[in-house]
Amino acid sequence: MKISQRLQQINSMISGHYDHIWDCCCDHGLLGMLLLKRNAARQVHFVDCVAPLMQQLTLDLARFFPGQAAELLHGLNGITKHDLDGIAQWQVHCLDVAALPLGQTRDQDKQLIIIAGVGGELLVELVRAIVAEHSERRLEFILCPVHHNYYVRQSLAQLGLILEAEILLEENQRFYEILHVIKDSNASGQCISPSGSLMWENLRGDDLALAKRYLHKVIGHYQRMPEDKHRLGIINAYQAQLGRITGSLFP
Q1: Is 214 exposed, middle or buried (0-12, 13-18, 19+ CB in 10 A)?
Q2: Cα gap 71→55, rounded to integer Å
Q3: pLDDT in tens, 111-128
Q4: pTM of the predicted model as reported, rounded to 2 decimal places
Q5: Can you tell me the mean pLDDT for 42-71?
Q6: Three-class SS string for 169-206?
Q7: What is the 8-class DSSP label of residue 40?
Q8: What whole-number distance in Å separates Cα of residue 142 and Cα of residue 145?
Q9: Dihedral through CA 210, CA 153, CA 164, CA 215, nearest 10?
């Protein structure tokens, strides 16, 4: 299957090596397979709550990555363990992302949780549940909501997460914000801005044109929405970003 530009961008944002990468709401598992191929983690976990999808994915992984199963699921019940050294292992989990079994891993393990392709409100619910359940752990997230980016960013900031990186992407006439954020009580870093920050820096050429199109679209969206107490503040925040990147006080 063709791998979308969005999944390729997420893959390119993952550097270094992790003990566990959790590809959540993984659908056909294409992103996780990219990560397996380049040994991005000691173990890549594929997580979704749709049982038929997970059954098919288990068969596909057994076909394309034979001998790398950490826990091979038989009808999503029986488990066979394999001991592998130096090769990325895979494991399939048919469960709610809010219930990730991080407790089955070591406290010191380096964890990356990827949640992409879901609505902003659901994404926040999932991150909030994971953070609450594993409050003492250092966790990294790569998040790509399909909408409600302002709300997502506000909520992540309220949870105390810090910003590592952020990317703006356009694919099939849709815009996506991809955020790499970290939960670490001992770390200091960039605060998460509701209207974005790093992705507006040093823009040139096509990237600048992309940013302008996106900001005009977002501002127009909120201007068409019914009046509420938050709407004007959100519009002002995005207009200020547009003014900064265009060098104009009144974009």
Answers
A1: buried
A2: 13
A3: 999 999 999 999 999 999
A4: 0.91
A5: 92
A6: EEECCEEEEEEEEEECCCCCCECCCCCCCHHHCCCCHH
A7: -
A8: 10
A9: 10
